[in-house]
Structures are given as structure tokens and as C-alpha cells.
Here is the input.
Amino acid sequence: MKLYSGDLSPYSAKVRMQIYAKAISDIDIELPPGFLTGEFHKTSPLARIPVLDLGGDVIPESEVISEYLEELYPQTPMLGSTPRETAQIRTVSRIADIYLMNNMFMLGGQTRQSTRDAAVVALLSGQVIRGLKALEHYIGEDGFAVSGRLTMADCTLVPALFLIENVLPTVGVENPIPHTPKVAAYWTAIQQNEHAAKVLVELHRGLVERRELIAKMAAKAKAKAEAQAQA
Ligand SMILES: N[C@@H](CCC(=O)N[C@@H](CS)C(=O)NCC(=O)O)C(=O)O
Here is the structure.
């Protein structure tokens, strides 16, 4: 099996963290073929990562992949031992996915100041802050999101909180995590977990690469504009 993934993709990081925590060794983690050229839709019609490739038969959507892996590799369970416990884990994972990660992902398009739409930033960041406030109600106070052990909720929350801390300030919004004390304490604690730490290294590496690429493109555009002005 292959997981098509990228360092900076938070949805991919969520699945990678599950793979690391379960010590699954027969999934190769690779970059998606044709992602940059727009050809990836030939592999997966949604053309988004992560995608799990079972040898030509592909599964898209991080949540669906995670549930599939949970069934396939029941060792180190990352859902609950009762239906109610599983519902609690899925609630936190869903808040992290839909209310945090989704809005943060769309905010990623607002980093350039010259084209930034203040109304879009206010709308999306408002939803993120609303999600964080709701999490204050659900989040565990023992270093894990739910159940006192690593679960799917942590796998979704870690990349979501990484994005909030690192991307929100780049669109002109103060990092709101310190204003939700239980989430803030959780965030400090979970970063010590070995599987969380591993995906955080990958996410940081992806962010550095993305920023270097943007700086390179800006320098190229500036040089071109200067050359045109002199011509
Ligand atoms: N709901 C999807 C979201 C996946 C997604 O948006 N992935 C991003 C990378 S983090 C992507 O592939 N973006 C490419 C695009 O938007 O064309 C999931 O949970 O897997």
C-alpha cells in the first residue's frame, strides 16, 4: 500500500501520525504523482491528498482512510472501547477537521498582503476561534485530547493546532490558542508525544520549504519587473 502525502498537508499529517502510532510498516509514504502538473486527478478524481493506494484501487479523504486503517490494523486502537467513547473521540476529531483545519486551509490563500480580503480573513478566523472555544469544553486535561491515551482526536488536532499557531499570524491574526487555556495546556503537552513530535518536524519542514519557494518566486517576479522597467 502507498499513502500519497506531503509534509505540509495537515490532512496527510493526520493519517501519518496514525500510521506512526500504530507502527504500521507496510505502507510506503510518497509524494503524489503529477500533483504539481495537475495530472493527479488521473490517480484520484478529487485530486487532493492524502490518498491511500491499494494497488490501483484508491481511497481519498483523510477521515475515510483513517477509519479504514483502524479496521485493517486493530493493534493500538485509536478509537474508543465503547460506542460513547468513540463518539467523544470522533467529536473532537470532527471539530479539529471541519471547524479548525478546513478554515485554516482556506486562510492559507490569504497570506499575500496585497491580495488579502479582510472580510474573508475575519469570517474564517472567526470560525477557527469559535471552534477553539468549543474545544475548551471537550479537551482532556491529562495531556491527551480524549480518553487519557493517544487517539484519532490527537491525530487531527496536532496538525490543526500547528496551522493555527504558524499560519494565522501570517494573515494578520494573533495566535488565539493562549486565550483557550485548556487547549493551550493540551498543545504544550501533546508536543512531547513522540508521534506528534515526528509529524510536527515534517510539518515544520514543509512550511520552511513553502516559504522558501514563495520567497524565490517573489524575487524572480521582482527581477522581471525591474528588467521590464529598464527596457
Ligand atoms: N477533506 C479532505 C481535504 C484534503 C485536502 O484539501 N488536501 C489538500 C492538501 S492539505 C490538497 O490536496 N489540496 C490540493 C488542492 O486543493 O488542489 C481530506 O480530509 O482529506
Remarks:
- Residues 9-11, 47-50, 61-63, 105 surround glutathione (CB under 6 Å).
